[in-house]
């Protein structure tokens, strides 16, 4: 660090390295920085002189960062992110506990943990604006590293370096199978005897699941295989939770969803609340589905702003975790 600074490394060089990594073209990187392409070329030449190696090589119509360029870009992204966080923190300190906090979460924990924390935050932190990004772990991981979200309730994303994250594991996330009220499965003879419905009797129906490769879908197919059952023959693949609900409420399809979500949108088969307007109902079956461990994730080595720390603590309190 000292050597590079003495050689003249500036924030503008870091911004260029970051932009080149994101855009893959010098012209696009210049546009992102709000400078002309010749100015970007001069910055690149200066950076190459400072680090003593080429930043990139030509690749088709774009560029490809060299190993040295990638190393600089990775560090540049982290440094720029810390500067951005410092700006937010200074603003919050000047204006009292206020500002914007963005939370990322997979669907189940968003309903089970984030929503209760939001209710607390509206009272305890009235001047803090909170945003929630709900998505898959593979979507949320890069957003966390990029500084678009402050922390997340998710799993380690595939293909990412685990050391880039700090994670407090909560445990596995149970899944439930759901279908519409009055679905034929609820007239199964086992229901009158309060006995789980055999999974093989459910495989004849259409299933609605996320796309191939998604964690939830892999969990279901692996759990079935461990019990010696094939995957459902007819699967509607979608990443839209609203489409899942619409499909199972209007057809005889079955869907696996997080149990915490199922309990928010359904009534159990032994409930006395059949006529409350719930669209779907939990199926009691003889196979247990659990998604791999998830937890509370932050960027390794980062410091949250005061507002983000306060929201995080509300979330931790609701989950029952000790203070961080």
From TrEMBL:
Taxonomic placement: Bacteria, Pseudomonadati, Pseudomonadota, Alphaproteobacteria, Rhodobacterales
GO cellular component terms attached to this protein's record: cytosol
Gene transcribed to yield this protein: gbpR_2
Keyword 4Fe-4S: no
The UniProt record lists the keyword Acyltransferase: no
SUPFAM superfamilies given in the database record: Periplasmic binding protein-like II, Winged helix' DNA-binding domain
Naturally occurring in which organism (per UniProt): Pacificibacter marinus
PROSITE patterns linked to this entry: HTH_LYSR
Protein's recorded name: HTH-type transcriptional regulator GbpR
Domain HTH lysR-type: residue ranges: 9-66
Keywords assigned by UniProt, alphabetized: DNA-binding, Transcription, Transcription regulation
Gene Ontology MF terms in the entry: DNA binding; DNA-binding transcription factor activity
Entry-linked InterPro entries: HTH-type_LysR_regulators (IPR050950), LysR_HTH_N (IPR000847), LysR_subst-bd (IPR005119), WH-like_DNA-bd_sf (IPR036388), WH_DNA-bd_sf (IPR036390)
Family indicated by similarity: Belongs to the LysR transcriptional regulatory family.
